[in-house]
Amino acid sequence: MTDLYQSQRAMRRMRKQAMDRGVIAILDVGSSKIACLVLRFDGSEKFRGADGVGSLAGQSSFRVIGAATTRSRGVTFGEITAMQETERAIRTAVQGAQKMAGVRVDHVIACFGGARPRSYGLDGRIDLADSTVSEEDVARALSACVVPDFGAEREVLHAQPVNFAIDHRSGLSDPRGQMGNVLAVDMHLLTVDTRSVQNLLHCIKRCDLELAGLASSAYVSGISALVEDEQELGSACIDLGGGSTGLSIFIKKHMIYADTVRIGGDHISQDISKGLKVPLNVAERIKTFYGGVLATGMDDREMIEIGGDTGDWEHDRRTVSRAELIGIMRPRVEEILEEVRVRLDASGFEHLPARQIVLTGGASQIPGLDMLAGKILGQQVRLGRPLRVQGLPQAATGPAFSSAVGLCLFATHPQDEWWDFDIPADRYPARSLKRAVKWFRDNW
User: Fold this and answer.
1) Residue 221: inside a domain
2) What span, in angstroms and rounded, lies between the C-alpha atoms of 279 and 428?
3) Which end of the chain, C or N, has fewer beta carbons within 10 A?
4) What is the DSSP string of 354-395?
5) Would you say residue 429 lies in a domain?
6) pLDDT per residue over 103-154, tens digit each?
7) Is residue 398 part of a domain?
8) Where does the record place the SHS2 domain (predicted)?
9) What is the pLDDT of residue 114?
10) Which helix (H) or strand (E) holds 249?
11) Domains held by the chain: number
12) Structural domain range at position 164
């Protein structure tokens, strides 16, 4: 626990220093693409210290001055499987963004999908020595949370207080300065697979970059795709990526649950490739231009020219009806949505007030997906795009860039986490995280 606490605080300090210098890079490591954004800060507001508990506390103005994307290589299910190929892809994206920005960046904040995230809900309670809640009281309440033994092969990625209560008055976002006798806190803990995080850290270091922050793609996608009311009233964000589908649930502007389905848009392309016996790049083109999941009476008569360059004229000039293409795509999309519904049922999503579901990510652009999702999930469903960010190129404003834009907001509008408070060493939970985050200790 001591190593985790100190190393996370070290990353927060490194992020603050990079933002004080005015430039920092954002790196979204996905299964289908790797995106890099370079941010410049105007210095009107500095990186927040301990000036608020809650999302978007202490905002800073920023502008995107560089952006680049490249096809992802060596990443499967959101996890690195070929180190050298992923390193080359990251270098290509970072160098392209640096060239556009005209500056060199040394520090990056990264997000990744996959890694089998698992959520835990923790709670702690303390008696107040003084009638007024202080910073130290909040730290003591956080340290009073009993953390389950989640295993040696898991890492803590996020540990965020989501609710405070003083003498049965619940729903407090920041209890400091308020009067009471007993302080209670509810905290959301997100753990991920150790090896996935170690591989990502090692790959970034091989690119001569320093890691100044790490986040889950499911979390940052929810930050950018959900509007403020949806985050407040209880909504789910489904990020349909290439290799995996991320799921995050927000209420009171805090994430309370996250999970991942290891199926994504690339699997739909593979089904088309196998069903039509075409190369994967041709299948991706067909899915992009002609794909869908809801068939109509016109689709039987709408013929799609497959094309190709095999040299066999008859094979390359084949045609297929759009109804047949939909028949290939729909079963896989239904499988993804059914898996998402299982995760939502397990999380208790039906007990939230709003129960709004927002679809985002590159695969969410398949025509008719929102209507099919409404039928399977049985909730209000809409398509979500990332928030407007100053300086973001038009090509990077689509749903496929929700996690990259969300990571910008995560970097500049950080929510308080466990390690943002000065917790005394003698109050670290004895059985909590003693075996976690070895990569922090090895690399800091």
Assistant:
1) no
2) 55
3) C
4) S-EEEEESGGGGSTTHHHHHHHHH-SEEEE--PPP-TT--GG
5) yes
6) 999 889 999 888 889 999 999 899 988 888 888 888 888 888 888 888 778 8
7) no
8) 24-225
9) 80
10) strand 245-251
11) 1
12) 118-192+423-438
